[in-house]
Amino acid sequence: MNTTMRVLLGATALCMATGMVQAETLTIATVNNGDMIRMQGYTPEFTAATGIEVNWVTLEENVLRQRVTTDITTKGGQFDIMTIGMYETPIWGKNGWLVPLNDLSAEYDVGDILPAMAGGLSYDGTLYAAPFYGESSMVMYRTDLMEKAGLEMPEAPTWDFIRQAAAAMTDRANDINGICLRGKAGWGEGGAFITAMSNSFGARWFDEEWKPTFDSEAWLNTLTFFKGMMDESGPAGYATNGFNENLSLFQQGKCGMWIDATVAASFVTNANDSTVADSVGFALAPDNGLGKRSNWLWAWALAIPAGTQKEAEAKQFIEWATSKGYIEMVAAKEGWANVPPGARISLYENPEYQAVPFAKVTLDSILSADPNSPTVDPVPYVGVQFAAIPEFAGIATDVSQEFAAAYAGQQTVEEALAKAQQIAADAMEAAGY
C-alpha cells in the first residue's frame, strides 16, 4: 500500500470516527396531526441513511404556533426545523427569519411542488418552507346516514342543504350528531373555519381601507347560522372542539358530516382507526350562491430558522421528508391512501393515486381556493382563512375567543361581534393602519 493511499484511508477513518462521536441531532417542532405522527415513525430510516439523529417536539396546534412564534421572534434557537404554514412563511421570510430553500437538489425537483403550495410558501419568488402536505377543506359525510335520511349529497352543496341534512341525520338517542365543526378558540382552529365560512356569506375581515367589518350584516349572518346549526345538530361542547376532537368523533361514528381539512380523508377511511371507514363520502365545501365556497388553503410545511447551526443537516431532513421518495415509501408500506397529500403534481398524475376515492375532490378543492381573491367584495389582504399581515394572529386569536364564548352560550352573537370589532379596530389603529 503506497503512502498516499494510507493517508487517504487514515483520513477517512478519522472522519468516520469523528462523525460517530459528533453525530448531529436535529430538534424539530411539529404539530400533533396524524401525518406528522406517521413521519416520526419513519425517522429511524432517515437516521440510518444519514447518521443524523432527530429529537421531536410534538405539540397541539395552538401551542405549536405560540412556541415557534416566540422562539423565532426572540431568536431563542430551540429548534433546527419548525413546522409552519402559509401564514407565517412569507412574513418570516420577508423578515429574514428563515433560511431560503433556493439550493435544494435537482433530484428533489422543486418544480414538482403544486404551484398553489409553492406560491403560498414563498416570498418574492423564493421558497422558504417545503410542504409536507397541502390541504383545502371539504365535506366528509356518512353515506349510510345520508341514505337513511332520504337525501343525496350534491357534489357542490349549499349551506342550506348542509343544515337541512344535519338536522335530518341527528339522532340524539344514539349519540349521533348531524354535523361536527370546529368551535375551538385559536386563529388556526375555530378561527380558520369561521373565516373560511364567512367568505361564502359575503363577509370579510377588513374593507379596502383596512377597517374591520364585524359590524356587518354578513358577519352577523355567518355567526348566527353557524351557532344555530351547531346548537341544533352539533355535539355537546362543540365550542372547545378542534380538528383532532372532531376527527375522533367522526371515527367513532358520532358525526353525520364533518367539514374540515382534506387531509383528514385518509384517517376517516382507514379501517384500522375509523369505525365508519366503509361508508364515507366526499363533497366540495358549501357555498351560498355568492361565488365563493367556504374552503381554505393551507400547507403544513418544514422551514429552517435562520439562527440554526445545523442548516446543512436540516436541509437534508427537509429533502427526505418532503420528497417523492418519502411518498413512495409510505405508499409501499401503508398504501396510497395514506401518503401525505396535496403537495406534489406527480402524486395527482399517478394512476394508482387517482384511484383513491378522495384524490380528485382534494385536488379540486385546493385548486378552487383563491388566496388573492378570497372574498365576495374586494379586500386589501391575501389569504383565504387568514389575512397575511403580522398583526392577524394576535387579533384573530382574541376574536376567536369571543366567538367561542358565544358558541358556549356565555354571550350573544351580537355581543361577540361588537367585542371583535373593538378588538380589531384597536389593534389595527395601534399598528398604524
Question: Which CATH architecture of the largest domain is right?
Answer: 3-Layer(aba) Sandwich
What is the rounded distance between the termini?
Answer: 74 Å
Strand segment tally: 11
Number of H- or I-type helical stretches: 18
By CATH, the topology of the largest domain is D-Maltodextrin-Binding Protein, domain 2
What level of helicity do the residues show?
Answer: 40-55%
Low-confidence stretches: 1-21
> Widest sheet: strand order?
2-1-3-11-6
Radius of gyration: 23 Å
Quickly give the structural class. Answer: alpha/beta
Count of the domains: 2
Mean pLDDT: 94
Amount of beta strand: 5-15%
What is the assigned CATH homologous superfamily of the largest domain? Periplasmic binding protein-like II
Taken in chain order, the helices and strands follow as HEHEHEHHEEEEHHEHHHEHEEHHHHHHH
Specify the biggest β-sheet: 5 strands, mixed
Shape annotation: globular
Question: Which CATH C-level class of the largest domain is it?
Answer: Alpha Beta
Keywords:
433 residues; alpha/beta; D-Maltodextrin-Binding Protein, domain 2; 2 domains; five-stranded mixed β-sheet; four-stranded mixed β-sheet; 18 helices; 11 strands; 45% helix; 13% strand; globular
